[in-house]
Amino acid sequence: MSGIDEPSSGIRLTMVRADLAGLPAAVLPEGFALRDFRDGDEQAWIDIHIPADPHHQFDLKCYRGEFGEDRDEIRRRQIFLCEPAGRPIGTVTAWFDAARGPAWGRIHWVAIAPPWQGRGLSKPMLAAACRRLRDLGHTRAVLTTQTVRPRAVGLYLRFGFAPEIATPADTAAWRLVATRLRPDLAAAVGEYLGGAEQ
Rounded to two decimals, what is the model's pTM? Predict the structure, then answer.
């Protein structure tokens, strides 16, 4: 295996997309729609995340800590996926990354409620967030995920995000997650690991 101690919530992984040109096409299934944040959607965001991510505590304090109080900024950046009756069932935020600078946008807090997972909804939601980052003037994107989310890692790899490997701990974490990926995606991670180790 990997020889590293993995907590139940997983080990943090960082992935980057060097540019936001040439984004993969992705279409929502009929009846589903994407919309921007509306007043009161804080609770919808919390209600989506609670069952989707049992390793974190989601409440209004968490939401405010992640996104602050600037409603105009949140409206420009937070996207909700709605099922055919109009109820929000997924969310992603096209946020920013102040530490990396204005070129970088952050794909932040991606979640779909468990009953709706596995229906081809994540890719269109991710595509919309990347387009939003581009429309807001960002030219690159970064996101974080965990080793316990191989399906999410696979989605991001197929969408053009690459592992960011800067330390031996990163290498160990990516080796671990590679054991949980389809062979073609594990091979792609192996190529990044090979480059990082040279």
Answer: 0.94
